[in-house]
Amino acid sequence: MRVLHVCSELFPYLKTGGLADVTGALPGALIALGVDVRVLLPAFPAIRAKLAEQGEVAHVNTPFGAVRIGFAKLPGNGTEAGAGVYLIDAPAFYDRPGNPYQDDAQQPYTDNHRRFALLGWLAAELASGLDPFWRPDVVHGHDWHAGLAPAYLVARGRPAKSVLTVHNMAYQGLFPAKVFGELALPEHFFDVAGVEFHGKVSFLKAGLYYADHITTVSPTYAAEITTEEQGCGLDGLLRGRVADLSGVLNGVDDAVWSPSRDPLIAASYTADKPTGKAKCKQALQETLGLSTESEGPLFAVVSRITEQKGLHLVLDTLDEIVSRGGQFVLLGSGDADKEAAFVERAAANPQQVAVRIGYDEAKSHRIMAGADVIMVPSRFEPCGLTQLYGLKYGALPLVRRVGGLADTVVDAALENLADETATGFVFDDFTAAGLTVAIRRAFALWAQPKAWKAVRRNGMRQDFGWGASAAAYLALYQSLLNG
Predict the structure, then answer these.
(1) Cα–Cα distance for residue pair 243/321, rounded to 1 Å
(2) In 3D, which of 467, 378, 372 has the Cα closest to residue 429?
(3) How far apart are CA 452 and CA 403, in angstroms?
(4) What is the DSSP letter of 108?
(5) Would 2-251+466-482 and 275-460 be classified into the same CATH topology?
(6) How do residues 123-181 score in pLDDT, each as one tens digit?
(7) Number of CB atoms found within 10 A of residue 243's CB
(8) Which H or E run contains 88?
(9) d(CA 395, CA 78)
(10) I need a labelling partner for 24 at 20 to 30 A (CA). Which of 187, 223, 248, 418 fits?
(11) Is the Cβ–Cβ distance between 5 and 165 less than 8 Å?
(12) What is the 3-state composition of the chain as percent helix, strand, coil, each rounded to the nearest 5?
């Protein structure tokens, strides 16, 4: 079976969020199950700088201009070869400053519709035989950037089956209706039964409408997006396609996230031999200028600083943590006013609060290793990888019962403590009061060191590797090809 993954970022070469972690890990997990996997990716500067091209596949005249397709190979894992990568060499589109979607002023590029239509168009071209030596049976697109791939496949007579994975419904790739004429799609595709969404072009809707199957990154989120509250205006379409909609939980790449052999942290440790975690906590405190005399738990946030992530709730409850003798560290960036508020709180209490604006992969590992609690109080959360990393590193997740958070964290309620299934703290109301109750429960458990260690050990023993997720995707591909 040949599967082409279509995406805009890929860890460790280019990452702006959890999407890159998924696309960086899933192909290798599928290869381990015997799938022939390749990835189609724009040749952004960060990609070109880190991934050496090994050859040329083709020069192609597209509706968006002439482009060149290069070829590279991802590193293998020692037993299996890595996935092949098709690199879209189109400097006029992709060789730009800023991130893949925005310029240095954080403004979306005005030609994003063409930049990512090209990605989908070339996916359909590969499915139609662009590479004479490799042709996919399944085209698996990720998020709105690949949303037009299923539409182009339908326009070509469905030369391959298609899957679209929604990593976040809130990002839809919306563009003015006038750009439709630039997309090289049949005229009748601009319709409510097609890519049209409230008078605009929606790349995400195109994928949801035309894909043979839709997945999301957790079972609970798959159900949530069929509701008005979390469907972002597309819940009606999704309810109509519920038979073709499923949730497959994301995994954790053990080669990247494992405290037993992570070279980025101060000391290694395991669930059964956790002493190194205390060394990691002290090293983190020293690095950030926090007091090493503190006997309270260290709470951490590694996140985009947005309302969706519940960071305003964290600001409102920070005094609760500090007044009870806890410490707090944040790594992230986002809303300027919230960034400034966190920085101000750290300046006012540098012994207990540390804030680092921006994102750094190595720092995120060190925070996971040093933290006692990782906070993910999101309004909505398709899957969430942060809480999975927290479980892996013995940082008890404190999460809201929503999306993938609900699927992966078991609350430290009395009955769950009794049967040794508890792995963290879960609350329901998206309010400061709801978060405050969860924080107090964390301090209550911290006051019982034996119980805390038991919950931590249970969390670290959870298996959220990519094996089960890859097997679920393989079963899905097989059902599509056999259907």
Answers:
(1) 45
(2) 378
(3) 25
(4) B
(5) yes
(6) 999 999 999 999 999 999 999 999 999 999 999 999 999 999 999 999 999 999 999 99
(7) 7
(8) strand 84-89
(9) 30
(10) 223
(11) no
(12) 40, 20, 40
Tokens 């920085």 belong to residue = 343
Q: At 481, which helix (H) or strand (E)?
A: helix 466-482
> Residue 381 forms beta bridges with which residues?
none
Q: CB-based burial of residue 430 (10 Å sphere; 0-12 exposed, 13-18 middle, 19+ buried)?
A: middle
Instruction: For residue 130, count other CB atoms closer than 10 A to its CB.
Output: 17
| C-alpha distances out from residue 130 to 37, 59, 63, 68, 122, Å | 16, 10, 15, 12, 9
Distance of alpha carbon 29 from alpha carbon 38, whole angstroms: 12
Determine contact, residues 140/165, Cβ cutoff 8 Å: yes
pLDDT in tens, 351-383: 999 999 998 999 999 999 999 999 999 999 999
* Closest C-alpha to 3, from 59, 69, 86: 86
Amino acid at 48: R
Q: For the chain, give me the number of helices (H) and strands (E)?
A: 18, 18
Instruction: Sheet with 327-332: list strands edge to edge.
Output: 353-357, 327-332, 298-302, 373-376, 396-400, 425-427
E-only strand ranges, 147-252: 161-166, 174-176, 196-197, 200-202, 213-216, 245-247
CATH-assigned architecture of domain 2-251+466-482 = 3-Layer(aba) Sandwich (3.40)
Angle among Cα 91, 16, 249 to the nearest 5 degrees reads 120
Domain boundaries, the chain: 2-251+466-482, 275-460
Is the pTM higher than 0.85? yes
User: Which are the contacts of 11, defined by CB distance < 8 A and separation ≥ 6?
Assistant: 20, 21, 23, 24, 25, 256
Domain 275-460 indexed as CATH 3.40.50.2000: yes
Angle at 423 between CA 421 and CA 425, to 5 degrees: 120
